[in-house]
Design brief:
single chain, Immunoglobulin-like, 3 domains, six-stranded mixed sheet, globular, binds CU-O-CU linkage
């Protein structure tokens, strides 16, 4: 296999968007950061050098990291952060994966600007299971705040209230026509009539699920989260933070310019945000009119459009790419995900309380040393392994919450034996308000075998599970006031973070971790840590 070396210099840079400037943390001065290219089977080494004043770590989102949890990246979970002036080499091999993923900072809110694409090409000579595109483009979607994002979250934590909504969305770093500043025109994708383009769409936004639409063109979905799907055509793509989606776009119009629109999806009565980011598909080599054919993005609460897309997703499940859904289950887990309210004497703005988030009523507390180290070196007192497999009390999850909204705060892990199989039902609660939660699991792909609205019914719902060709992914949207059921095999020893990829929910504690024990056979245990692993 090939060894690929990358160097990420993390530096401050002044950036101007929406006619206002601020310093942002970047990799190599770029926003979005550089796209990392590799092939399936490659060994990738990325030297990350921290030149800024913040502690830092970088996560290779969706990379399985088989036995190499040390390179996964979430701060205080698999590593201590890289301190200012220090560096760390992330060293991993890409096994059994090809497609679009991304990388992002995994500490504080730094991923607002510290992120970029991660493209895994198939092994040399192996074609895509769909018509070979003429060209490929990475489209990174993100959010932009005029003020410093660390200040935004710190202010929210101090007040106990929700943080400010972003001022714009961006497509490859640019907001497009929402900005009145002439130098801020949106991203342009030049196309030629008759050619087909593979768009690798990444939602790197902190807090918003997004709709993606191109005026005058249908999109053919071929892959999500670096797994192939049965191709289907759609007008609109829905993509949650942490998710990636590959679509084919055929330039089958005559000439001109066509608007690309990116707008938020939020079907919970929480924050209103109807800002649209735009980019342009431009037919070159034809007489381009200056008019752009525009498109209306779906309204913010267009649940039906989102559901139609989600319900169309199926694993390709071909001979070459079979869907290996676990058919017997060792651990049946039921996790409620939602918000709660805990006392906070200093939070005056929120009347002495603060918004928290929890899984099975546990608000996860970040340790001050890395969990994986504590596990490997058997350090006592850092975590316990009594994370509850079921909620502490039953209530009408999709109705109004119980009277006591308070959560337990602790660092609890759930222990899994090597190679055991897990079925996990994630149930949204309406304790404060029902909300869509994109749950991301590190170290694994899982299959979404079922989803529904209301309370999960353990008697009737499992009978309807799709165990043949369910979509395989690493981040799944739990529907507002509903549930989703996933299955995976615990074949990767280590400590693996699971959390809501809405950054504010992670900050509030909607997170936990699985501890997967070593197996007994050869190549079934976590490798020892690299020598340059940062210390806390
Ligand atoms: Cu993309 Cu734990 O994150």
């Amino acid at each position: 296999s090939t060894v690929r070396h990358y160097k990420f210099n993390v530096v401050l840079r002044k950036a101007t968007r929406l006619c206002s400037s601020k310093p942002i943390v970047t990799v190599n001065g770029q926003f979005p950061g550089p796209t990392l290219y590799a092939r399936e089977g490659d060994n990738v080494l990325i030297k990350v050098v921290n030149h800024v004043k913040y502690n830092l770590s970088i996560h290779w989102h969706g990379i399985r990291q088989l036995r190499t949890g040390w390179a996964d990246g979430p701060a205080y979970i698999t590593q201590c952060p890289i301190q200012p002036g220090q560096s760390y080499v992330y060293n991993f091999t890409i096994t059994g994966q090809r497609g679009t993923l991304f990388w992002h900072a995994h500490i504080l809110w730094l991923r607002a600007t510290v992120h970029g694409g991660l493209v895994i090409l198939p092994k040399l000579g192996v074609p895509y299971p769909f018509p070979t595109p003429n060209k490929e483009t990475v489209l990174v979607l993100a959010e932009w705040w005029k003020s410093d994002t660390e200040a935004v979250i710190n202010e929210a934590l101090k007040s106990g209230l929700a943080p400010n909504v972003s001022d714009a969305h961006t497509i490859n770093g640019l907001p497009g026509s929402i900005s009145n500043c002439p130098s801020q025109r949106g991203f342009t994708l030049p196309v030629q009539r008759g050619k087909t383009y593979l768009l690798r769409i990444i939602n790197a936004a902190l807090n918003e699920e997004l709709f993606f639409k191109v005026a005058g063109h249908k999109l053919t979905v071929v892959e999500v989260d670096a797994t192939y799907v049965k191709p289907f055509k759609t007008d609109t793509v829905i993509i949650a933070p942490g998710q990636t989606t590959n679509v084919l776009l055929t330039a089958n119009q005559n000439s001109g310019k066509y608007m690309v629109a990116v707008s938020p999806f939020m079907d919970a009565p929480v924050a209103v945000d109807n800002k649209t980011a735009t980019a342009t598909v431009h037919y070159t080599g034809t007489l381009a009119t200056s008019l752009t054919t525009s498109t209306n993005p779906p309204p913010q609460n267009a649940t039906q459009i989102a559901n139609a897309f989600i319900n169309s997703l199926r694993s390709l499940n071909s001979k070459k790419y079979p869907a290996n859904v676990p058919l017997t289950i060792d651990h049946h887990l039921f996790f409620t995900v939602g918000l709660g309210i805990n006392p906070c004497p200093t939070c005056k703005a929120a009347n002495g309380s603060r918004v928290v988030a929890s899984i099975n009523n546990v608000t996860f507390v970040m340790p001050t040393t890395a969990l994986l180290q504590a596990h490997f070196f058997k350090t006592k007192g850092v975590f316990t392994t009594d994370f509850p497999g079921n909620p502490p009390h039953k209530f009408n999850y999709s109705g109004p919450g119980p009277k006591n909204l308070q959560t337990t705060t602790a660092t609890k892990l759930y222990k899994l034996q090597y190679n055991s199989t897990v079925e996990l039902v994630l149930q949204d609660t309406g304790i404060i308000a029902p909300e869509n939660h994109p749950i991301h699991l590190h170290g694994f792909n899982f299959f979404e075998v079922g989803r529904g609205i209301g309370n999960f019914n353990p008697k009737t719902d499992p009978k309807k599970f799709n165990l043949v060709d369910p979509v395989e992914r690493n981040t799944i949207g739990v529907p507002s006031g509903g549930w989703t059921a996933i299955r995976f095999r615990a074949d990767n020893p280590g400590v693996w973070f699971m959390h809501c990829h809405l950054e504010i929910h992670t900050t509030w504690g909607l997170k936990m971790a699985f501890l997967v024990e070593n197996g007994k056979g050869p190549n079934q245990s976590l490798l020892p840590p690299p020598r340059d692993l940062p210390k806390c």
